Amino acid sequence: MESAIKTIEIFPDCVRLIDQRKLPLNETYVDCRTYHEVADAIKTMVVRGAPAIGVTAAAGVALGVRQLNSEEDFSEQFDAICNTLAQTRPTAVNLFWAIACMRTCARQYQAAPLAERQDALTAEAQRLLAEDIQINRRIGAHGLSLVPDNSTILTHCNAGALATAGYGTALGVIRAAHFAGRHVQVLADETRPFLQGARLTTWELQRDHIPVTLITDNMAGYFMSRGRVDLVIVGADRIAANGDAANKIGTYSLAILAKEHDIPFYVAAPLSTIDRSLASGAEIPIEQRPGDEVRMVGSQRIAAPEVEVENPAFDVTPAHYLRGIITEAGTAMPPSRASIAGLFA
Ligand code: MRU
To answer: 95 — phi, psi (to 5°)?
Structure first.
């Protein structure tokens, strides 16, 4: 049985998030009671992972609208709420996609009384949350045929239940394989600097009793060269129309290593992560995060406070390194402009 992880819960007057900064040592929850608190939670990584960011932003929009007590200037106030949430993190396109869904919903109810509009927006955010879990289950079902029995799967960052409304994308495929009775084991990269692999991926896989071994990021080549990795599955934050995929920093180097060792490399992501307005990955905005994430490990300083640091949070893997992009609509294999367009047909 899968253990249910409640990454996000949406109530009319509160958005409850598991605090991912504190895992795995403490399982605590943050209750956001204003849309500004939701925006802060996204910025400060209480919640992270592309689909989870999207659902949380949608919940933030609903919360913001719930707190309006007059219809006066509704569209200006609605824009202000959406813009605040849109300015939290730039790379994961699910954020902008989810806010666009909320805008569509608001337009559908524009003639309705405020209370009805508020209820409709809360219901829409809750619908997006439930739909994300169903989508991830479909991604898992599509990915299943790509996972042989007795395989070792390397993954990077956390593309699991914690990075989504539940179940996960890359970890969704692994969950589907495990619960279908395949013998799979996972090598989890620790994923410096924020350690999503060490802190989150190992935590959630262990809860489901899926065998997992933690390695540091620089060990991947060693394990590949010794024939100890059968396939790599990662998530994505934004995929361009040609299949170039932005994901957690370090994904690009892993893909090159996998190619060198002839190891299949898959991206698992919902269609909402595909940004068809971008011709290639060169156009994907890459978030630069604070230097102290690199100068420190947790609360421990490991480098001189004044040392220059660069901290790009994501890199882009060109489509030709990917064997396939697994989505809820099937797998684009190999990824190309045509195979990706086909997913939307
Ligand atoms: O900075 P993060 O933790 O939000 O980055 C998350 C990732 O890069 C994930 O791999 C990606 O969002 C896919 S999550 C299903």
So the answer is: -60, -50
Q: Which of 237, 244, 275, 315 is catalytic?
A: 237
Radius of gyration of the chain (CA): 20
pTM to 2 decimals? 0.97
Find out whether 230 and 151 touch, Cβ atoms under 8 Å: yes
Distance CA 158, CA 169 (A): 9
| DSSP secondary structure string for all residues of 299-344 | TEE-S-TTS----B-EEEE-GGG-SEEEETTEEESS--HHHHHHHT
- Cα–ligand 1 centroid distance for 122 (angstroms): 25
pLDDT tens digits along 278-337: 999 999 999 999 999 999 998 999 999 999 999 999 999 999 999 999 999 999 999 999
Mutate to test the pocket of ligand 1, among 42, 91, 157 (most ligand atoms within 8 A of CB): 157
Which residues have CB under 8 Å from 233's CB, separation 6+?
143, 153, 154, 155, 159, 170, 173, 174, 266, 267, 268, 326
Is residue 30 helix, strand or coil? strand
Task: Please report the pLDDT score of residue 137 as a whole number.
Answer: 98
Looking at ligand 1, which atom is closest to the CA of residue 94? 12
217 catalytic per annotation = no
Alpha-carbon distance of 7 to 238, in angstroms, equals 21
* Residue 317, ligand 1, Cβ within 6 A: no
Q: Which of 248, 265, 273, 293 to mutate to test the pocket of ligand 1 (most atoms within 8 A of CB)?
A: 248
Instruction: State if residue 160 touches ligand 1 by the CB under 6 angstroms criterion.
Output: no
The residue assigned the tokens 């609360």 is 299
